[in-house]
Design a protein that fits this description.
Largest sheet: 7 strands, mixed
Mean pLDDT: 78
Helix content: 25-40%
Number of strands: 7
Low-confidence stretches: 1-19, 118-123
Strand order of the largest sheet: 3-2-1-4-5-7-6
Length: 205
């Protein structure tokens, strides 16, 4: 299994002057350190697996127009957030149709983040097997504008081999409509984590 910090791609170095990329940097550890998610200044973000809405609320407080989606939205709703439930099983085909309708147009960033814990799924959050499969990648892409960014940082699922997951992603991301993978890493720590930053192509493949 790869050692922590192994990277399969050269990280993207585009400078971001404003917008969601800057705000994700400002979020620091709370957003998984996803400073590697620059994009050209848009402020519309979908937070997939928003849980109780704590991170979603923090991002909204920084000026982003944020839409959350999860299986249970009761806690996030009490925070005054715009949140919707998955349509059917989480991240299955068509499961993000509700948030697409709520957003009323393509968004600049799709963020998927599960905080580190002793569990491979975090505190009830998503893991690599949930959100890095081809079907899930296509669902995220349906939300993104051309050139928009998918930013994922989640635990590696129990029993999964990090190298195999990474190599499969390098095949599945282009097939799902992403023209570039700007950062793809296995992160260090007791709990192996996968970070993916990918750019949506100008048209569906």
């Amino acid at each position: 299994m790869p050692s922590g910090g192994q990277s399969f791609c050269i990280p993207h170095t585009q400078k971001t002057h404003y917008g969601a990329g800057v705000l994700l940097r400002g979020a620091g550890a709370a957003a998984g350190g996803l400073a590697a998610c620059p994009q050209g200044g848009g402020d519309r973000l979908v937070h997939v697996g928003c849980g109780d809405g704590a991170l979603t609320k923090m991002l909204a407080s920084k000026g982003l127009r944020v839409f959350g989606v999860d299986m249970d939205i009761a806690a996030a709703t009490t925070r005054g957030l715009k949140v919707v439930e998955y349509d059917g099983q989480a991240l299955s085909q068509g499961s993000l149709a509700g948030v697409a309708a709520a957003a009323q147009g393509a968004v600049d960033v799709v963020l998927v983040y599960t905080a580190p814990t002793s569990s491979s799924r975090g505190a009830g959050g998503l893991s690599s097997r949930d959100c890095l499969q081809a079907t899930a990648l296509k669902e995220f892409g349906q939300l993104l504008k051309p050139g928009g960014r998918l930013c994922v940082e989640v635990p590696l699922s129990d029993g999964d081999d990090a190298a195999a997951v990474m190599m499969q992603l390098l095949q599945d991301a282009p097939a799902a409509g992403y023209k570039a993978v700007s950062s793809l890493q296995v992160l260090p720590g007791l709990q192996q984590r996968v970070r993916l930053v990918a750019e949506r192509a100008s048209c569906c493949l």
